[in-house]
Design brief:
34% of the residues lie in helices and 24% in strands. The radius of gyration is 25 Å and the shape is elongated. The protein has 399 residues and is of the alpha/beta class. It binds cytidine-5'-monophosphate.
Length: 399
């Protein structure tokens, strides 16, 4: 659970997108967060407090003068426990009040009193979003340190089409998770390979492996959460691209090699998590090969694929290169030797008992000083720990 133990204050203001915030509460709770909902008067006309109360499991607040709160200081009590304030939907009026520091109801007072990071998810008619007053207010909020998520473009409740829809709850959830990650790779251009490759024998058959892509996708997501600009070159997987990550789909090792090489010179960091086929069929048949009674099984001649990681590491201005190694035996000896052979400063050994397809893994770091465990647990958690480790090395703080 990505938000385990996190305390989020969700301010819901008066827009039709308030119904999406009910779904957001459900997602936040599923991720382990505690959610305190504050409704404005206008919001409660769209979705009632009972809905948010049932989903969050907490009484909903909306009144600055709530007698349930000791000393009638709801704005102070609620502000203290929150780590992040999310305002979704944020109406044009809410943005205007917040940008000007007005404090005339519980939510606006909280925004001033909390001293906590705020993430706004604007939702309004496209003309209102484009209005110079709204542009000014959003710019001012950004300058004050707020995050703005969206708005998305598409069909609006008013029937018009344009920019102004609240982002979908799933996307907002990703922005909330990202908000909690330290921005240790801010602006770092990062290239990640992930998944298996598929080496065609004929139009229906091929050679591949059991890589699910989960570790590489977790690395791409963790890097993006840390502020990196991430391009993910992915072999065939069943996974959706992490939010905010550019994905380039490839099939074979040669395609993956070409896609990486076209971008490697601009990258500052390259993480090779893909399980690249070492060999491909020397010949790919144009048509499905037929089985004929009495004929022996055909032998498939193989030829080597290019080593993408070693190729990138050998570039004159190579990015910081990180490799992965999955071994079925003698991990330490093989991984240490592999790191030297590939010419990379950091190699990550998969030591999980069931690395492929699992959501869990155990990793060991190999560098010039030796090796040490990175940890054991969910791939996303390990990916975040790896990103922190890489960031330290990139900044030269720890070697
Ligand atoms: O040699 P081996 O395949 O075990 O090395 C694993 C590491 O090298 C991984 O980081 C993998 O992504 C990378 N690799 C590569 N191109 C290949 C083979 C492996 O980038 N052809």
């Amino acid at each position: 659970m990505d938000l385990q133990g996190r305390h989020i204050l969700l301010g819901v203001t008066g827009g039709i997108a308030a119904y999406k915030s009910a779904e957001l509460v459900r997602l936040l709770i599923k991720e382990g967060a505690t959610v305190q909902v504050v409704l404005t008067e206008a919001a409660s006309r769209f979705v009632g407090a009972a809905t948010f109360q049932a989903l969050s499991g907490r009484p909903v607040h909306g009144d600055l003068w709530d007698a349930r709160v000791p000393d009638s200081m709801a704005h102070i009590a609620l502000a203290r426990e929150a780590e992040l304030i999310v305002v979704a939907p944020a109406t044009a009026h809410t943005l205007a009040r917040a940008a000007n520091g007005l404090a005339d109801d519980l939510l606006s007072t909280l925004l001033l009193a909390a001293g906590k990071p705020v993430l706004y998810a604007p939702a309004m008619n496209r003309e209102m979003w484009q209005h110079p007053a709204t542009r000014r207010n959003v710019a001012r909020l950004r300058a004050d340190g707020a995050w703005i998520s969206g708005p998305a473009a598409g069909e609006q409740a008013c029937g018009e089409i344009g920019e102004g829809r609240m982002v979908e709850p799933e996307d907002l959830l990703q922005d909330i998770v990202a908000a909690f990650q330290p921005k240790v790779l801010a602006g770092v251009r990062t290239l990640v390979t992930a998944g298996p490759t598929f080496e065609a024998i004929d139009p229906v058959r091929g050679l591949t492996n059991r890589s699910s892509g989960k570790m590489g996708y977790a690395v791409a997501r963790a890097a993006r959460e840390a502020g990196a600009e991430v391009t993910l070159v992915s072999g065939p997987t069943a996974l959706a691209a992490p939010f905010g990550v550019e994905r380039i789909d490839v099939t074979s090792a040669q395609q993956m090699h070409d896609a990486v090489m076209a971008r490697a010179a601009q990258a500052q960091l390259f993480v090779a998590t893909a399980a690249v086929a070492d060999w491909r069929p020397a010949q790919t048949f144009a048509h499905k090969q037929k089985k004929r009674d009495g004929e022996p099984a055909p032998a498939i001649a193989l030829q080597p694929n290019p080593d993408i990681l070693a190729g990138v590491a050998a570039l004159p201005s190579a990015p910081f290169c990180v490799g992965f190694a999955a071994e079925s035996e003698q991990l330490v000896a093989h991984a240490a030797a592999k790191r030297e052979r590939k010419g990379v400063p950091l190699l990550v050994g998969n030591i999980g008992p069931d690395t492929f397809g699992s959501d869990d893994n155990a990793l060991e770091l190999f560098d010039a000083d030796g090796h040490r465990p990175l940890g054991r647990g969910r791939k996303l958690m390990l990916a975040r720990a790896l990103v922190a480790e890489i960031a330290r090395r990139l900044s030269g703080a720890a070697r």
